[in-house]
Amino acid sequence: MAASPHVAELQAAVADREQLEIEYYSFSRDEMTTRVVDPLRVFFAFGSWYLAAFCHRADDERLFRVDRVRAIRRTGTHIAAPEPQNDELELGELVYRPRPGDLRVRLRLARGAAWVIESVPHDQVFELDDGSFEVVLPVSGPAFLDRLLLELGPAATVLDPPEIAASVADTAARILGRYGVTVS
Known about the structure:
By secondary structure, the chain is α+β, with helices and mostly antiparallel strands. The chain is 26% helix and 39% strand. The protein has two domains: 7-94, Roll (SH3 type barrels); 103-178, Alpha-Beta Plaits (2-Layer Sandwich), CATH 3.30.70. It is built from five helices and nine strands, in the order αβββββαβαββαβα.
């Protein structure tokens, strides 16, 4: 897989221990942000390049997908050597770390949508008598959930909270409207 044009520049910043300012597209929030980050490591996983960095805006360590970095500016500020990594953390936990304040959504998934249980962090999962599943997902932002539910289509039903079902229905109606389909 070809590396993003930013990979080499990010790797150099990690080696030089230099703080960066990045323009970053947040997929979960569907917005562009400017972030000051202390780069810790660059790695390839799940088919994408990632930058692990301390984000000053979030005041916490974050992972940034390199293909969502739109611009990089070196600040000239040198940073301390990073703390040793916690190798016990699984990569899936690093990509999205659920937080107590994140929205929790309860879904019913058809048997064919069981892949969600393997690929998306969840708090609870119950297999039902008919082979379907009920799962509680922590969600960092509505844009991620909208995309997941649109991908799942009729294989997923939002059980709780009810306002999420209405939000997804509005998103689907907007998409259909773009193609001249009116939903009443």
